[in-house]
Amino acid sequence: MGNSTIKAKDIMVFGFALFAMFFGAGNLIFPPYLGIISGPKWMIGFMGFTLADAGLALLAVMATAKFHGNVDKMFERCGKKLGIMIGCADILCIGPLLAIPRTGATTFEMGITPVIGNALPIFIFCIIYFVLTYLLTIRPSKVVDIVGQFLTPALLIALAVIIIKGVVTPIAGIIDKPMIDNVFAEGIGQGYQTMDAFAAIALASVLIVSLNDKGYTSPSVQIKVILKAGIVACVALALIYGGLCYLGATVSSMNGTDAVQAKVLVAITETLLGTVGKTILAVAVSLACLTTSIGLTSATGQYFANLSKGKISYERVVLAVCIFSAVVASMGVGRIIKVAAPILSIVYPPSIVLIVLAFFNEKIKNDNIYKAAVYMALLISVLGVVESQFGVKVPIIDTLPLHSLGFNWVVPVLIAGVVGKFIPYKKQSAVAE
Questions:
Q1: Which alpha helices (DSSP H) does 251-366 contain, by range?
Q2: Residue 217 DSSP SS3
Q3: Which domains are present in the chain?
């Protein structure tokens, strides 16, 4: 039967577990920079960022819970091959392609360089960092759990001190107007960069195991627990993101759009709290990055080992991930973020469509609704990247509704879904129980 009475204590425990899952050290580099370029409209940028980060991540966990943590099952109704392709793209983004290398590069730029300067070359550091990641992922030890338990509160206390100090005694003034157009859309784009929605899909199975252990075995009850816990996590995240965005805005008169994202918070901390504050932040961020790297490497290893039905071992995937990540991390945070932007702009819309449709899985009987909607999301996002990255003018893209908010794919996807409903589908998929 399972437990249907939801305890307040469990809500708080799972709320902070979700918070720890969503909050990686990478999340520290985007809000301050967003504050700088948004200036007086930092609140609008922050709202877009929080929606695309915490909001989507919460939806992703709830959707995955409906399928007992099985990502492939959740994605397969748009076609098995396309579903696996999108699933692999999501995992590669939080894996060796972007997120894992970024933990190494962020540790170097926010944790090592501010303390010891340029004495250590980045490629040497990346080798050491990913050898450590490999060893702790292959042989998980209690060290990671202990660091994780103490780290989140320590990092939160450090951030609270920095934010309060910055609010009470602002470093400088806020500029008169934003440095960019479409502040909300920029917030959405920066929120995509955290990749928390993809991480939530990959790590949801871990949370579902914990829910089962507590007696919450029914998917409908699990979704209610996750929703309530998610509100706790999202409020905590919003407080931090809002504070960091505001800190960025207060130094907007001292910076430009060329500010180095990984160094903004370090510079703010040093100005507010001196060398001691900067060193504490460096240590906390470094440990947070390492625990994130281990968690994501493990999740990637499990995903591809399961996908290959054991033909490629977990250990081999982990080794390949660590070697590839060390190479990519050597590029530095700035270049990884530049490479990530177009990739995420393509991968996110079809993934969001599948996450949203998961909530209507039992009611939608025709798989062509999924296929039409997902292919349309993919088409619009590819055309958008062709225009923004390669300068090829695609007239329809700029004229679509919600373009200024960064959601120009939404209306075409809704139309495509409706059209898909009227295309007969012979083989009906088995829907989730």
A1: 261-307, 314-329, 333-358
A2: coil
A3: 8-350 (1.20.1740.10), 360-433 (no CATH)
E strand or H helix at 189? helix 183-194
- At 310-319, the pLDDT tens digits run 899 999 999 9
Cα distance between residue 338 and residue 201, in whole Å: 24
Asked if residue 355 lies in contact with residue 204, where contact means CB atoms within 8 angstroms, the answer is no
pTM value is 0.87
| DSSP, residue by residue, 402-421 | TGGGT-TTHHHHHHHHHHHH
Q: What is the pLDDT of residues 389-401, one digit of tens each?
A: 887 888 888 888 9
335-to-99, 106, 224, 261 alpha-carbon distances in Å: 13, 12, 40, 11
Query: Quick one: how far is CA 51 from the chain centroid?
Result: 11
- 85-91: long-range contacts (C-beta < 8 A, 24 or more apart)? 86/347, 86/350, 86/351, 86/354, 86/374, 87/303, 88/307, 89/347, 89/351, 90/198, 90/201, 90/202, 90/347, 90/351, 91/198, 91/202, 91/299, 91/300, 91/303, 91/304
For residue 311, give the 3-state DSSP assignment: coil
